[in-house]
Amino acid sequence: MLKRRWLTWVGSALIFGGVAVLAWCYWTLHERTTAQRRAKEWLIGTTAVHRTASPTPMRRGDVIGELEIPRLQVSVMVFEGDDAGILSEGAGHIPGTALQSGRGNIGIAAHRDTYFRPLRLVHANDVIPLKTPAGIARYAVTETEIVQPSDVSVLAGAPGRDLTLVTCYPFYYVGNAPQRFIVHARNLNN
Questions:
Q1: How much is the pLDDT for 30?
Q2: Annotated catalytic, 111?
Q3: CA–CA–CA angle 141, 144, 150 (5° rounding)
């Protein structure tokens, strides 16, 4: 009798736990999808106004634009900031890196288990359009590398390093990944 009651309790706890996990997964997916949709609507609704005339300081969570890698079927909205809250909604512009094409190295990060999972299949010369209110800048992948998380030199400006994508590595690692996968690209508009 006691064994049956214990098994019933354990079974109920497992079912409740499973439902809670599924509800959490659904909620996070819903939040991410909603944030992406709203950001895309904002970007479509804005006119092509260059920020160079009167630069507005970007605040955490502001929409930067939309990054695509057509060959890999990647399309993700990019927000200002690179903290956990931003990366749960999309890709994040790494503070301290350039904001505009032609002004230095633009750094963008995203999680390896969401929007940047396809980066494992990126090739040299893959084209990466970045749509912003100022227009569309196109980049071509020049190289990839794997670095330690502390190696921020990959975000420094260098000839042909106009866009840098950052995600965790290895792609199939469980938990906090020990390295970073870096994609460098050069501006095709110049």
A1: 65
A2: yes
A3: 130
